[in-house]
Design brief:
By secondary structure, this protein is mainly alpha-helical. 73% of the residues lie in helices and 5% in strands. Helix 4 packs across helix 5. The chain is elongated.
């Protein structure tokens, strides 16, 4: 009796396993069917849209007279349409040449209009500092030079540290002179300090 019970239990377990597996396979099969059905519907919609576009294009082609009409006349009348086609082709070539020439003229005008903008580069900070010192009659500190240049050129980000470095570079090249009053350092253009010296020589 125990053997029969064990066999029955094994059979029941196998049946439940197969049932679960079959149920899972059925679920996956249904999902696959849904996926394929969705793809088929999408493809059918695309096909319908393409066919609609084809119909529209054919109608436009017929309206423009591009489609060749069936020839009912004798063969002797065939050269006449060919001449028209040749004339149409010549007209298209002429129109293409005119369009190309017009496009070149427009491009030339645009290039000429852009040329002045690129021919005037912005002055460098070194040039601005030198010009500012040359226009001053008294020594100026780096902070004063920075403030003056920032007011004259609000579109440029001018920092005191950069101006001080630029001034020191000008001093190293003898394009500016440095004087120290207490703990403050002032800068002048070379000509600004040479003028008093040259004025004292005649005396």
């Amino acid at each position: 009796m125990s053997t029969v019970s064990e066999t029955t239990a094994d059979t029941t377990e196998l049946t439940s396993q197969y049932s679960a597996q079959v149920a899972g396979d059925l679920e996956r099969n249904l999902k696959e069917q849904e996926r394929l059905s969705g793809e088929i519907e999408a493809l059918q919609a695309q096909l319908a849209a393409v066919r609609h576009d084809h119909t529209v294009l054919v109608n436009i082609q017929q309206a423009l007279g591009i489609t060749a009409e069936p020839v009912a006349a004798p063969a002797a009348t065939v050269p006449s349409p060919r001449k028209k086609a040749a004339a149409t082709g010549t007209g298209k070539q002429t129109a293409t040449k005119k369009t190309t020439t017009t496009g070149r003229k427009r491009t030339t005008k645009k290039t000429a209009a852009k040329a002045p903008a690129t021919s005037s580069p912005r002055p460098t900070l070194v040039e601005l500092v030198r010009e500012h010192l040359a226009a001053q009659t008294e020594p100026r500190s780096a902070a004063e030079v920075t403030t003056a240049l920032a007011e004259q050129h609000p579109d440029r980000a001018i920092k005191t540290t950069v101006v001080r470095t630029t001034l020191e570079g000008l001093v190293a090249k003898n394009h500016a002179q440095r004087t120290k009053q207490g703990s403050s350092v002032f800068y002048t253009a070379p000509d600004a300090e040479e003028q008093p010296t040259s004025g004292e020589q005649p005396a």
